[in-house]
Design a protein that fits this description.
about 130 residues; alpha+beta; 2 domains; 3-stranded antiparallel sheet; 3 helices; about 20% strand
């Protein structure tokens, strides 16, 4: 059985490992953003929407939707999603960002507009398939 000192040291070691891994993850995410940006720029320069590389798969250039709503407009958002769109399954006290993205993507893809209080941000993105 470990002593309190050994357990204390284990806690410190585990926290240090978490900090190290979180730092590595932050660096990896920054690198991913950088290389995805470079590939998107290259695809845009060549007017490519997609391409295939044997052994790696397909890559598709698309716009990623990121809708957001000010905190002061949360009640209006809930009323819009629940009452106007009838998607009450998505409404709790708040609407999760992934749920909001799905709902707004559906509305836009069906040619409907969304209220002005929902800000739309499109970020270039890539989808990779095998």
């Amino acid at each position: 059985m470990k002593s309190e000192k050994e357990l204390f040291q284990d806690v410190i070691d585990a926290r240090n490992e978490c900090d190290r891994i979180e730092g590595q993850l932050k660096e990896a995410k920054a690198r991913k953003e950088e290389v995805e940006g470079l590939l998107i720029e290259r695809m845009d320069a060549k007017d490519l929407k997609s391409f295939r590389v044997e052994g790696l798969g397909n890559i598709i250039r698309k716009q990623m939707l990121y809708p957001s709503v000010e905190k002061s407009d949360q009640e209006a958002l809930i009323a819009y999603v629940d009452e106007e769109l009838g998607k009450n399954y998505a409404v709790k006290r708040t609407i999760h960002s992934a749920t909001l993205r799905s709902i707004i993507t559906e509305e836009l893809s069906e040619g409907r507009s969304v209220p002005e209080f929902i800000r739309l941000y499109f970020k270039p993105g890539l989808t990779i398939t095998k």
